[in-house]
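Progress report, Aim 2. The chain analyzed during this reporting quarter is listed below.
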Amino acid sequence: MNYDPIKDRFGELAAKAPAAQRALYAGLQAVFLRNWYVRRAIRELHASWPKDKPLRVLDAGTGFGQHSYFIAKTFPQAEILAVDVKQDYLDQARRFFDQTPYKDRIRFEWADLTQFERDEQFNFILSVDVMEHIEEDVAVFQNFAKVLAPGGHVVINTPSDQGGSDVDDESDESFIGEHVRDGYAPAELGSKLQSAGLTPVRHHYSYGSAGSAAWRMLVKWPMKALSKTFAASVLLPVYYLPVFPAGMALNWLDVRQENERGTGLLMVARKA
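Predicted C-alpha cells for the chain:
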C-alpha cells in the first residue's frame, strides 16, 4: 500500500482554501506521533534562542510545509528556507504562506538534498521522514554539515530498524514500498552523522507500544480503507469520533515515557 497518493489527494483538497490548509496541518500534527516528538525537539533546542537574533532554519524536505508553519509561528525571528523535490508541494505551500503574516520570512525552493549547496549558513536543520527515501544518505549529511553554522543543530526523524512503516508486514498493507531502507538503528545513524562532521547529542525512540497502537488506529487502518476507495473518506468523521480520543491518549502516553524501543527514531546532532 502506497501512502503518497492518498496524502496527495488530501493535499489537493486542502489547497483550495487557507482554512483547509490550516486544518490539514492541525490534523497531521494530531494523528502523526512523529510531529509530537519533532515539535518537542524544536522547542527544547531553541526555547532560549535570543529574541533579537535571527534564527536561520533549513526545512529539508518540507512536504506540505507544516513544520515550517509551526516554526514561523513559534519563533518570530525565524528565517526559513523550505526545500523539497516535489514542485507541486512547494507551489501549494507557497500559495498558502503568501496569505499568512509569515510570507516574508520563508522561501520555497526546489532542491535535491544529495546535491544541496548554499553560500548561506543555517542555525537549525530539520529533516522529518526524508532520509528513508534517499539512498545516498551520507552525502546528504555531508551537505548538512557544510551549511550548518558552528554550534547549530540538526534534527533527523526517521523510521527505526525495529519495524518502522510495518517493514515486517509481508502483506500489501506496509508503507515500506516507498522507502529505500527499512530504517536506522541509533548507532548506524549516529555513525553516519559523525562521519559527516556532526556529533550526535541524543536520540529517542518513538512509536513504542502505546504509539504503535495509536498509529494503527489513527493512520494505518484509515489509510488501508482509503487505498481501496477514496470514497471511504466520507466515513472518516464517523470512524474518528470514538477512535480519536483514544488515539490522542496513546500518543500523549508515548511522548511522556522513555521508550526502550520503538519503530520511530529521532536524533539530534550538533556541529562543533
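The beta strands are 55-60, 78-84, 106-110, 122-128, 148-159, 199-206, 264-270. The mean pLDDT is 90. These observations will guide the mutagenesis work planned for the next reporting period.
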